[in-house]
Write a structure and sequence with these properties.
The protein has 331 residues and is an alpha+beta fold. The chain has 11 helices and 5 strands, in the order H-H-H-E-E-H-E-E-E-H-H-H-H-H-H-H. The radius of gyration is 34 Å and the shape is globular.
């Protein structure tokens, strides 16, 4: 027997079919949500396990990103440049602010990169591996007295230093300038290539005419000598053999003043002295006296530690200044 479905029955069946489809859609959605939640939970668990098992990795000092304050100011400058109603004076003010901020970012990036180089250099021993005879008593050739001493040649210093500079995208270049009276002035320039910030170090000396050198040889010898010392000054390098061969004694007066200046910039004191195994201020009677008790072999370690603290403080200060400058620039 055939049954006829009337209009009233069609109306009754239609909502039922729609209800089944809606339930099916909700069921699929619930399963997808559950699957996504499970995947997220599993990934989180893996990350936590990886962090627990992975050895601690020393991360470099963070440097302010050029995509922070300077990029926001540049965006404001672009808007002003395309605005026909823009005030030219205000645009120039914004450009000056942008240039100052970029220069500061470049300086901070330079300091952070140099700090990392100094830290790695502290674990490298540069030794005096070349001998030379030095005339200590003049007279007839057969009666002259000579003494042998060792020094670290420029190529030995560069062999250790160059790979570290390449890794940090830094470059150390030299230039010589003649001086009145025949002296030589060597300029060493350390540049951080990405930002272009650089610092110069100068050292003068008369030509080295000892040992019967010709004029050309005297200039070449002095040039090499000054470049060695400029590199050592820039990176606080103390080759093994200096300062009582690095095995005893305390730092000298000039090194004490250098560390005192760095302590003032880093704004640290008692903890640093304890870390360097030096006397306390109370024991020595003054901060200068306490610093003077630092071992000569630890001079580079002290300078590198303070430089790292200064770099971290500058990065923190730059982030705060960048935030304030961005807010003021947008007003």
């Amino acid at each position: 027997m055939k049954m006829k479905i009337g209009k009233s029955n069609e109306k009754t069946l239609a909502p039922a079919g729609e209800a089944k489809r809606g339930a099916r859609v909700r069921e699929i959605a619930i399963r997808q949500e559950a699957s996504t939640a499970a995947a997220v939970a599993e990934q989180t668990c893996r990350t936590q396990k990886l962090e627990q098992t992975e050895p601690a990795i020393e991360r470099p000092t963070p440097t302010p990103s050029s995509d922070n304050g300077s990029s926001m100011i540049l965006s404001l400058i672009e808007k002003l440049a395309f605005d026909p109603r823009a005030d030219v004076e205000r645009l120039e003010h914004m450009m000056a602010m942008y240039e100052r901020l970029k220069a500061k970012e470049a300086e901070l990036a330079y300091n952070a990169a140099k700090s990392r180089v100094l830290k790695k250099l502290a674990n490298i021993k540069i030794i005096k591996n070349r001998s030379v005879l030095y005339e200590i008593e003049k007279g007839k050739p057969q009666n002259r007295t000579y003494e042998a001493f060792k020094y670290a040649p420029l190529e030995e210093i560069d062999r250790h230093l160059r790979p570290l500079l390449t890794e940090e995208e830094m470059d150390l270049s030299y230039s010589d300038e003649p001086r009145e009276g025949g002296g030589i002035l060597i300029r060493g320039r350390l540049t951080h290539l990405p930002g272009g910030h650089y610092e110069d170090s100068f050292m003068p000396a008369p030509p080295d005419t000892t040992g019967g050198k010709s004029d050309v040889q005297a200039v070449g010898s002095t040039n090499s000598f000054l470049r060695r010392y400029v590199a050592c000054n820039i990176f606080n390098i103390v080759v093994v053999g200096d300062d009582d061969d690095g095995i005893g004694g305390t730092i000298d007066e000039a090194q004490t003043r250098t560390i005192l200046d760095l302590i003032k910039k880093a704004k640290i004191g008692p903890k640093f002295l304890k870390y360097m195994k030096a006397q306390s201020v109370e024991e020595a009677g003054s901060l200068e006296g306490a610093v003077a008790t630092i071992a000569a072999r630890d001079y580079r370690k002290a300078v590198n530690t303070l430089a790292e603290q200064i770099a971290k403080a500058e990065v923190s200060h730059a982030h705060r200044s960048s935030s304030r400058g961005t807010i003021l620039g947008s007003v």
